[in-house]
Amino acid sequence: MLFELNRAPRHEIMAEARQIARLALPMMIAQIAQVATGFVDTVMAGRVGTDDLAAVSLGASVFITVYVTLMGVVAALNPILSHHLGSGQTREFGRDASQGLWFGLLLGALGALLMLLLEAPLRHVLNLPPQVIDKVMLFITGAAIGMPAAMAHRALHAYASSLGHPKPIMVVSLLALALNIPLNYILIHGLFGLPKMGGAGCGWATGIVFWFNCLALLAYVSWHKAFRDNRVLASLSAPDWRRFAAFLKLGTPIGLSFFVEVSLFSFIALLIAELGTVVVATHQSVLNFSSLIYMLPQSVATALSVRVGHHAGAGDYKAARFISGVGLAMGLAMAGAAMILVLLLREPIMRMYSQDPRVIAMGTTLLLFAAVYQLTDAAQTIASGALRGYKLTAIPMAIHITSFWIAGLGLGILLGLTDWIVPRMGIYGFWTALVISLTLAGLLLTYYLARASRQRLRRDQGIML
């Protein structure tokens, strides 16, 4: 059975499942709130006009690519801080927690600079009316202003979750979502003497909300009694470049893994543009719904990186392997339930997005693909989170590159846009390749997790199991 869970008493499995759920549930709600912010931006911009909707979609794609990649780099703080706590190194925990704040701010500043530098080449690449391009750039500028706060917030996220206190992350994220809606409206329509920005105002609202997110979470963890023994600002000192190098060494492969995954979907969206607006609209609708379901395994993965990190840091590799197995079992159970719901509710799901019968017909077919890859997507996501808890990031990065760019994007182009293997499949070729790539990633990452956790267990025990 999976990670020898059949040898463990049922009450121990259930107890660990509750521990993982206690961490995962608040973070899942927080992540859904963040995804909902993008949904709100799209809906509110779409009510203004088609140009504004296009500007938000394009500007958000640039922002999301940079944000998710850098978020992956900062995610290195989760296993680092968890290992310190597991090994009882409270002083080192406080030092790296405070250095993580500097690291997030500086990395976010570099991300903001990158976004601003991308504006000039994008003006030459985008074949759109000048007024739309201007709104895209205005959106990017506003979102870039919030990037330092976004990365500092992710550092605080790692700090709070490593201590086993994810609820403030959830509360602040929900407040940020609530703030985003009136800010969007004010900046879109130019109320209270502010300039009327149209859809581009959503980018500036995003930037402001990120600063609120960061400062509110910082205030909470600095004040609440649950954090009094490990105040993040208590150990604040000048930036330590050697610690930043250690963060980058572990975080760069994670960031590249995140970039590979997010760029796969971005590139597919660009490649299918020639297939028509109905195909693009259907693809984006199914992808949007799939991203909501993805929050389930992603929250478990984040919880595992903390739980596994605690026990790996303490040298308890038996518990770390057990936790990995329980997390995978939880994720597969949730993915199985999600798969059944998607299969049963395909048409109602598509009717939430469009009343166009062409979109509904194509979308119900694409949702079959989305249902099929729920299990393997959950497996690759959760296995990656557990491996981060072991501080293993290089091999998962190589697996992601092979699976997503070669099997996913390369095979998708061959199946969808050429007749080299089979007659051209169009959008269905890309989704077939997605299923294959996620299956490959799920199998390889689960195998690597099983092998690596077993090796550490043998080394710890000094015997051959």
UniProtKB/TrEMBL annotation:
<feature type="transmembrane region" description="Helical">
    <location>
        <begin position="204"/>
        <end position="223"/>
    </location>
</feature>
<keyword id="KW-1133">Transmembrane helix</keyword>
<feature type="transmembrane region" description="Helical">
    <location>
        <begin position="244"/>
        <end position="272"/>
    </location>
</feature>
<feature type="transmembrane region" description="Helical">
    <location>
        <begin position="322"/>
        <end position="345"/>
    </location>
</feature>
<keyword id="KW-0813">Transport</keyword>
<dbReference type="GO" id="GO:0015297">
    <property type="term" value="F:antiporter activity"/>
</dbReference>
<dbReference type="GO" id="GO:0006811">
    <property type="term" value="P:monoatomic ion transport"/>
</dbReference>
<dbReference type="InterPro" id="IPR048279">
    <property type="entry name" value="MdtK-like"/>
</dbReference>
<protein>
    <recommendedName>
        <fullName>Multidrug-efflux transporter</fullName>
    </recommendedName>
</protein>
<keyword id="KW-0050">Antiport</keyword>
<keyword id="KW-0472">Membrane</keyword>
<feature type="transmembrane region" description="Helical">
    <location>
        <begin position="138"/>
        <end position="156"/>
    </location>
</feature>
<keyword id="KW-1003">Cell membrane</keyword>
<dbReference type="InterPro" id="IPR050222">
    <property type="entry name" value="MATE_MdtK"/>
</dbReference>
<dbReference type="GO" id="GO:0042910">
    <property type="term" value="F:xenobiotic transmembrane transporter activity"/>
</dbReference>
<feature type="transmembrane region" description="Helical">
    <location>
        <begin position="20"/>
        <end position="40"/>
    </location>
</feature>
<feature type="transmembrane region" description="Helical">
    <location>
        <begin position="397"/>
        <end position="422"/>
    </location>
</feature>
<feature type="transmembrane region" description="Helical">
    <location>
        <begin position="101"/>
        <end position="118"/>
    </location>
</feature>
<keyword id="KW-0406">Ion transport</keyword>
<keyword id="KW-0812">Transmembrane</keyword>
<feature type="transmembrane region" description="Helical">
    <location>
        <begin position="60"/>
        <end position="81"/>
    </location>
</feature>
<dbReference type="Pfam" id="PF01554">
    <property type="entry name" value="MatE"/>
</dbReference>
<dbReference type="InterPro" id="IPR002528">
    <property type="entry name" value="MATE_fam"/>
</dbReference>
<feature type="transmembrane region" description="Helical">
    <location>
        <begin position="357"/>
        <end position="376"/>
    </location>
</feature>
<feature type="transmembrane region" description="Helical">
    <location>
        <begin position="168"/>
        <end position="192"/>
    </location>
</feature>
<feature type="transmembrane region" description="Helical">
    <location>
        <begin position="428"/>
        <end position="450"/>
    </location>
</feature>
<feature type="transmembrane region" description="Helical">
    <location>
        <begin position="292"/>
        <end position="310"/>
    </location>
</feature>
<dbReference type="GO" id="GO:0005886">
    <property type="term" value="C:plasma membrane"/>
</dbReference>
